[in-house]
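**Fold tokens**
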Amino acid sequence: MKGKPNAAKVIHLKFDDNKAARDLFGTADQNLKSIEKSLGVDIHVRGSDVKIAGESTDVQLGEKVLNELYQMIKKGYPVMGSDIEQAIRTLTRNSQARLESVFLDSIFIPARKRAITPRSPAQKEYIDAIRKNDLVLSVGPAGTGKTYLAVAVAVASLLKKQYRKLILCRPAVEAGERLGFLPGDMKEKVDPYLRPLYDALYDMLEVEQVARMIASDEIEIAPLAFMRGRTLHNSFVILDEAQNCTPMQMKMCLTRLGMDSKMVVTGDVTQIDLPESQESGLLDAIRILDGVEGIDIHYFTEVDVVRHPLVKRVVRAYDDTDKT
């Protein structure tokens, strides 16, 4: 790995569990290289021993990142490349933070025998907000986990019988395209708009299980327009892509909430596909509902993106262009 002369501080780490150490270092030591690049330190590896050299503050941060991720791996947490950047960002913001308290606050999905974990402090706060509030508005760019985490909490709650039904809905708005006449019955016409919701479900449940739960009315996936005139009791409701609702549609959806129900509204206000003359219902709701007791409005930013690293750079580039 790269050299860095005249380092202000050098520390040595020894990891006793060779397998956990290999998982920590990553394929071809890629995780260590990411730490080098992010912190500007020099890392040398011999077996399961690590030497970190660099400026004192950076070296101490690198030491804390490696030690805490190592302990998480030994507890069964699968550290991925994206976790390195998230860990550094978390500890840079708060050097006293415990990565375990963020990454191991899991949503367990019994059907898949797996846990879905928050990968940033903002994601952990989002999950906490959903658990504590009956209405949450989640706003932020693509790739921050707004919909995925909401579906995860909803599926886990449904499997525990905390709710009778999971309802997933989206406004059927074309994303800047003119699709023209779509053949087929109503389901075939609207399914393309709802595909991302199916994708999230299929990542948590078997395809056959999703089909059975839809057939038994435990899960409903429908366009927003299908919500009109209903009262949704004992249900977990997720309204996705809410930036493409009109104010009237948003009010209609929010007022569907029945007894013993919970609703999460997600959207990205930088990707509004409504006509320019039409105000977004999500922006309208944020303005009206801010500060209302029992309602949480949660914001993500580009630093919370957990998709491919390029997604974060794309979001940042567009934001910078919008500002100028």
